[in-house]
Amino acid sequence: MALRHYTLDFSLSAAADSASTVSSLLSIFHEQEMTETVHDTEGHGYLATFVGKNGRLVILRVHSHGLITIDLQCYEEDNIAQLDNLLNALEKKLTALLNGHITRIKRLPALVRGAKVDRYWPTADGRLMEYDIDQVLYEEDSAYQNIKILRSQQFGNMLVLNGDVNLAESDLPYTEAIMGSGKEDYAGKEVLILGGGDGGILAEAVKQKPKMITMVEISFHGFCSAKVIDGCKTHMRKTCGNVLDNLKGECYQILVEDCVPVLKKYVQEGKTFDYIINDLTAVPISTEPEEDSTWEFLRLILDLSIKVLHPSGKYFTQGNSVNLTEALSLYEEQLGKLSCPVDFSKEVVCVPSYMELWVFYTVWKK
């Protein structure tokens, strides 16, 4: 069972008279066989609820500062035409009644709540987006996170980790940006991928015939897991091709291990990489880097990565939404505090399924 929630708002140049406004609307509700209950707002305008026999609920509020709001809730299987007629009648009556005092009328599409397939996911900066998702293809809970692969008609199959949209089949721009946007030559190079369980980076890197790619697919911080590989190799093949079918290929190996001990081992061995691609986590949105464990994890990975980066090598990573300027500035401050001095550049790319601009960083030793 799911609920549909419609909203209709009238912004006014002055406060409306509650008595005359409500009395003009009552006949519409009575025609729908809805009974009203008036609630005490302690002087803050007028508030009433109208309940119908079929489970419909309307909340009518005439606010004291020049706003009228109507919320209509009904079951998903309710008659859509009847609901439209009800909202149309209310809008027509109020438009006539408040003629000359209306500054804006806003009617939003229905918000579907409690549906089996969740279509609503937030952007990094907290804006709610509705996706055209029509099917859950895969869902598993690992020790680290909830993993979903959803089908979007527009973006293709889409990987969502703990409610965060990670990558869709449409998102080649993300993969290209985190690999240097076509400016780098991976042929014959040693490459380290941290995370990347969807296989998109690995699939694109393999095409360039590197000497060896090592992909470390799990982290103690809980952003990747072997179950991500399991889901993606079945449901994200437009992104990963066949590279996730085996943990070893002609020029790559996938290590399902904690990336921190692996990096520390490489530091001890003196092993270096021409390219390191960090796809573990975005720059945290917290502005308290000294108190946020995600920031601590990010700094640890960054510092270890720079230690195993070849002197002429490059380190690539995602940042976050271009709108999160403070968090991005804090990350850039962290780049100045590493054990080895570095320079960096950044690029802004539109990632289709994110529906927002995303920042990517390239870091290299001075």
Secondary structure topology:
Blueprint: E1 3-12, H1 18-31, E2 34-39, E3 46-52, E4 57-63, E5 67-75, H2 80-97, E6 102-113, E7 120-122, E8 128-130, E9 133-141, E10 146-152, E11 156-161, E12 164-168, H3 172-178, E13 190-195, H4 200-206, E14 212-218, H5 226-235, H6 237-240, E15 252-258, H7 259-269, E16 273-279, H8 293-307, E17 309-321, H9 325-335, E18 342-351, E19 356-365
Parallel strand pairs: 13-14, 13-16, 14-15, 16-17
Antiparallel strand pairs: 1-5, 1-6, 2-3, 3-4, 4-5, 7-8, 9-10, 10-11, 11-12, 17-19, 18-19
Helix pairs in contact: 1-2, 7-8
Fold and architecture overview:
It is an enzyme of class 2 (transferase). Its EC number is 2.5.1.22. It holds the Pfam family Spermine_synth. It catalyses: S-adenosyl 3-(methylsulfanyl)propylamine + spermidine = spermine + S-methyl-5'-thioadenosine + H(+). The chain has three domains: 3-112, Double Stranded RNA Binding Domain (2-Layer Sandwich), CATH 3.30.160.110; 115-167, Spermidine synthase, tetramerisation domain (Spermidine Synthase, Chain: A, domain 2); 170-365, Rossmann fold, CATH 3.40.50.150. Helix content is 27%, strand content 39%. The protein is built from nine helices and 19 strands. The chain has helices at 18-31, 80-97, 172-178, 200-206, 226-235, 237-240, 259-269, 293-307, 325-335; strands at 3-12, 34-39, 46-52, 57-63, 67-75, 102-113, 120-122, 128-130, 133-141, 146-152, 156-161, 164-168, 190-195, 212-218, 252-258, 273-279, 309-321, 342-351, 356-365. The longest helix has 18 residues, at 80-97. It is elongated, with a radius of gyration of 27 Å. The mean pLDDT is 93.
